[in-house]
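hey so u asked for the seq, here:
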Amino acid sequence: MGLKGRDLVSIKDLSKQEIESIISAARRHIPVAEGKRTSTLLDGKLLALAFFEPSTRTRLSFETAMLRLGGRTITIADPAVSSVAKGETLSDTVRMLSGYADAIVVRHPNEGASRLASQVSEKPVINAGDGAGQHPTQTLLDLATMEEHFHTLSGLKVVLMGDLRYGRTVHSLAYALALFGAHLVLTSPPALRIPEHIRSDLAEIGADIREEADLRRAVQDADVLYVTRIQKERFGDLAEYARVSSGYRLDPSILEEVKPSFIVMHPLPRVAEIPSEVDSSSHAAYFRQAFLAVPVRMALLSLILSGQPGPGGG
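ran it, structure tokens below
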């Protein structure tokens, strides 16, 4: 698989076969991610983390992945204490970082920022979320979570709930799931329906999509409920945010009616959309999902920076 030296800006940059290969490679990294084995595959490599938007899991899991592989990181975690505060452009920042590091991970509030970064960087660029655009590495770990649980990605029935308009995780995930023949059920407030251009992309690859406002009906015979946060920061009117978000909360009683193998996923952070009593349920998969970010990103970094899939590969 030829990922060495490549950018990853959109999930569309990967074929179905490449997605499967990354997930397969990630399985081999799990013992290293758990600290049960060690790896020096990326010894001497340096990863730049350029985060112009808040992040916990994405930034720390990339950093953990690099360190577990024997590499090192440099980080912009707060633009307010970087030259961005002085007016430096994203292009100049990326050009500078590409002279320091072997690859750059970019998170930015503006859609298209990672694509711009990839055009000016001499080193591979990985999109860690660009506004309401794409979040391809989140999609990879989401798919890895489903594959680990169901031992397949083919033909799953997946309910996507919450902010489908601005939720970049959903935009990437819906496309990838469609490649694997998933049945997608969309449940969201009318103002936060999935954008038409995303819907058009899905239609082009023959996605099976329907909308269902009633969550109880939506999860009937479903395999996965993928919950997303109603993003307060996207609302100018806080009263409107409170009104919309109050109607999108998982009632734990719904889980009494689902299939035994059903799982609940969430890219995190959550606010109130999944109550804490769900955490102890056998259906809760979101903390395992968060852990799998490390081996999945280890696999991706290994392939991009060394061309090797990792432990047991060559």
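The chain has two domains: 11-133+294-305, 136-289. Residues 286-305 form the longest helix (20 residues).
lmk if thats what u needed
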